[in-house]
Inverse folding.
């Protein structure tokens, strides 16, 4: 499935594929980089709450003119470093939206070091596939500050500029460090041959690929995929299987309107075609040190990582209860129900309930989150949600409302927003 909302290679903060000391970021950023490292303990906050507040004020001002801000950013960026343009996809319209989401995310979590560091480290590792290097950082930073200075006329001053500079320095250094560490053990991408292409209906296909090298991942994660038909355009899809002994990977792909990658994978790809895979990402993974029950909500192709989690539990040999609610609009949209029902027959600890929101059904009727509330109690369960962003949001609200604490609810809606930050 598309990792929630199918993030692509968007945004404007490039990651490095090589180790780069702070001095390589350019003279404007060098003092800040050294200052940050010299005056903060390891693992402490990169910028105080006052900086975070200034950053958020700037974002609040420019949000109504986000399109203009991001267009101006890219104009400055490509003016300063024309070679960077070749690293981006030909169409930049979606790219602009993703950059602003990246800024919102960094600002929102600027004073939450664990969240920000986890996100940026994953982003840095993932962006090695774009071919960017640490030398690109100064141009990106200057373009970012230049665009903010032009459009944040009410809140922009020397103090705000310094706060943004500190934030950007921290962001870039975390990404550079993560990319450099990853380079020692992993390639920037994997070539993967399509070995099976199974259409399930007019817009969904189950695609199995064979990577050219071992591909380590965990059930519940997702990978970015680039097709030969749309170079430099990447989309994220969740793994639909737990790690297999033969090394094969399976994805569920729904062709969406104007979806370049999804349309190509569903309607054009055939066995023998070769795609590229970025590294695995995502945190919707199971904790196998506990026997607590798992409550899984999958909507549409969001059932793909749920199926992988079920297989993962089976592989670990733990008889923990797993309750799966599989949501769709119509019975015909439950394209993988037979697979789940077969798993249910094999594993007594697994329960599968189809939920249909529109029209008659042989399963349960209603909206998925509301139906789940009728069962339970779920307070002792770990919850996993995957599907359209609206379903995930309403599902989280419903689960919180019935007493499941936030730390026991796992989903990639935050990671989806974060992953959309991207670099070239």
């Amino acid at each position: 499935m598309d990792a929630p909302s199918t993030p692509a290679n968007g945004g404007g903060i490039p990651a490095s594929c090589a180790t780069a000391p702070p001095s390589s970021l350019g003279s404007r950023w060098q003092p800040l980089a050294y200052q940050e490292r010299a005056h903060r303990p390891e693992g402490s906050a990169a910028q105080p709450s006052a900086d975070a507040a200034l950053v958020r004020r700037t974002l609040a001002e420019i949000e109504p003119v986000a399109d203009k801000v991001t267009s101006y950013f890219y104009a400055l960026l490509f003016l300063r470093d024309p070679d960077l343009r070749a690293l981006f996809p030909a169409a930049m319209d979606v790219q602009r939206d993703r950059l602003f989401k990246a800024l919102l995310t960094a600002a929102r979590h600027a004073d939450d070091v664990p969240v920000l560091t986890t996100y940026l480290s994953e982003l840095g590792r993932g962006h090695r596939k774009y071919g960017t290097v640490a030398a690109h950082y100064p141009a990106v930073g200057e373009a970012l500050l230049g665009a903010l200075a032009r459009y944040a006329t009410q809140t922009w001053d020397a103090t705000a500029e310094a706060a943004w500079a500190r934030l950007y320095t921290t962001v870039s250094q975390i990404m550079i460090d993560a990319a450099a560490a990853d380079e020692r053990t992993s390639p920037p991408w994997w070539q993967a041959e399509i070995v099976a292409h199974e259409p399930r209906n007019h817009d969904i296909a189950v695609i199995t690929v064979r990577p050219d090298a071992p591909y380590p991942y965990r059930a519940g994660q997702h990978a970015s995929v680039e097709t030969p038909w749309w170079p430099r355009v990447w989309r994220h899809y969740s793994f639909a299987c737990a790690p297999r002994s033969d090394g094969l990977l399976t994805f569920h792909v729904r062709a969406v309107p104007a979806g370049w990658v999804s349309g190509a994978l569903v309607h054009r790809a055939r066995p023998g075609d070769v795609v590229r895979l970025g590294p695995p990402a995502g945190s919707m993974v199971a904790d196998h040190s506990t026997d607590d029950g798992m409550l899984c909500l999958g909507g549409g192709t969001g059932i793909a990582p749920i199926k992988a989690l079920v297989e993962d539990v089976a592989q670990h040999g733990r008889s923990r209860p797993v309750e799966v609610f599989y949501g769709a609009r119509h019975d015909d949209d439950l394209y993988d129900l037979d697979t789940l029902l077969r798993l249910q027959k094999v594993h007594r600890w697994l329960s599968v309930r189809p939920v249909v929101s529109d029209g008659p059904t042989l399963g349960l009727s209603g909206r998925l989150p509301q139906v789940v509330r009728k069962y339970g109690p779920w307070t002792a369960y770990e919850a996993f949600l995957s599907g359209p962003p609206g379903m995930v949001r309403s599902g989280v609200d419903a689960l919180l409302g019935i007493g499941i604490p936030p730390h026991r609810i796992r989903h990639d809606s935050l990671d989806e927003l974060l992953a959309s930050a991207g670099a070239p």
User: Anything to note?
Assistant: The longest strand covers residues 190-199. The mean pLDDT is 83.
